[in-house]
Amino acid sequence: MIDSTKIREDFPILHQKINGNPFVYFDNASTSQKPKVVVEAITDYYYRYNANVHRGLYKISAMATEAYDNARKKVADFIGAAPQEVIFTSGTTASINLVANSWGQENLKENDIVVLSEMEHHSNIVPWHLLQKRLGFKIHFLQVDEDGSLQLDDLAEKCKGAKLVSITHVSNTLGTVNPVEEIVKTAHANGAKVLIDGAQAVPHMAIDVKKIGCDFYAFSGHKMCGPTGVGILWGREQLLESMPPFLGGGSMIDEVHLDYSTYAQLPNKFEAGTMNIAQAIGLGVAVDYLQEIGLDNITAHEQQLTEVALEKLKSLDVQIIGNAQNRVGVISFAMNRIHPHDISTILDHEGVAIRAGHHCTQLLMRKFAVPATTRASFYFYNTIEEIDQFVKGLQKVKEMFRRVS
Ligand code: PMP
After folding, report:
1. What is the average pLDDT score of the chain?
2. Domain Aminotransferase class V, which positions (predicted)?
């Protein structure tokens, strides 16, 4: 069980008034708020032991190195992986671009097939478009049903001859949770590698990459109580070993000669230059924080918020965009003839922060024939009272537009 009152004490940002109303933050799919312990860990690093890692033979450099390595261990434990398989990147986008530019560049040829889906975030489409231009492979898209779930009837057909299936675990627009284990089985049976975009999954549910069985798993720190500027690429050790580095520079080498270089062992091979040390340490603390609350408690609390919100939205006659059976607390909706930007602006007056736009999923906007949606997304520190404030705000939106129309 989540003790909201106690948990909310950890988030000073939630205790302010916005436009004279209690602040309600429902844009968690975009980025989460940060608990004090994470902010303090970052400050502590800068105040007490700011130094580069893996280099200095002096006290505070050793402290920084130990904290950085520890953060990697925490993340590895969190997702059921070994530390050397966990690469620090700047976020999900960077992780996917790493796979595209290293594994993809090395393994994809003209006429090969990459399978994506219509519900991918642009960060799991554009890197493949960029690479496709260079290499000339084909991209097949799994389609999305009216209810927001992935059409999997033709999964085996689409995977036939594919080299890579790259799919989101949870949709950032629809909240749909995809059956990734089933997708992995089918993809592997067809000889394809599988990359899962876990940006919207890791913050909200217990993840075990070995259980999922995929080959790569990417996510961002800032959506899971960590700071911006840090993310993770997990990959199978042997696979990462076989891949060339993506970025070249300091710290990723073994030897550098006039005409060639050799590269460091994992994970350093993929961590060129001075890394996001403070952010990685902050992410490690965020992982501790989430584990203390318990991922199962987080999932259950958000499930309850989602059910309550969906029920209350019914009375307002809004159209929920996609509402798959297996879903998380990301709710995209449309209100008859009212533009999402107007909804968002009016809600802001009421102190409620939600998002309006295409959410970096233009394929989905086209699929559902809308230019944009209004999206409310919850995290474990949100409450039923906040949902009431949000619904009241929507009632005001309806009122105002009734008057002007
Ligand atoms: N994939 C999904 C499903 C996302 O929701 C996001 C962030 N909105 C990303 C990828 C990109 O994450 P980042 O901007 O942290 O790289």
Report:
1. 97
2. 24-390
Q: What is the dihedral of CA 173, 178, 184, 189, to 10 degrees?
A: -110
Nearest CA to ligand 1 atom 6: 199
Assess whether the C-beta atom of 32 lies below 6 angstroms from ligand 1: no
> Best of 123, 196, 230, 232 to mutate for ligand 1, by most ligand atoms within 8 A of CB?
123
CA 29 – ligand 1 centroid, Å: 9
Q: Residue 337 pLDDT more than 90? A: no
pLDDT bin (cut points 50, 70, 90) of residue 55 is confident
pTM for the model:
0.98
Contacts of 49 (CB under 8 A, 6+ apart): 60, 63, 64, 67
Q: Which tokens is 13 given?
A: 């940002």
| CATH superfamily of the domain spanning 4-30+294-404 | Aspartate Aminotransferase, domain 1 (3.90.1150.10)
**Which residues form the catalytic set?**
360
Q: Once rounded to an integer, what is the mean pLDDT over residues 35-58?
A: 95
Contact 287, 230 (CB under 8 A): no
Judge if the beta carbon of residue 149 lies within 6 A of ligand 1: no
Query: Confidence class of residue 56 from pLDDT cuts 50, 70 and 90?
Result: confident
CATH code assigned to 39-291: 3.40.640.10
**Cis bond leading into 267, ω under 30°?**
yes
> What residues does each domain of the chain span?
4-30+294-404, 39-291
pLDDT for 195 beyond 90:
yes
**Which ligand 1 atom is the nearest neighbour of the CA of 169?**
3
The pLDDT, as a whole number, for residue 402 is 85
Alpha-carbon span 99 to 245, nearest angstrom: 10
91 C-beta closer than 6 A to ligand 1: yes
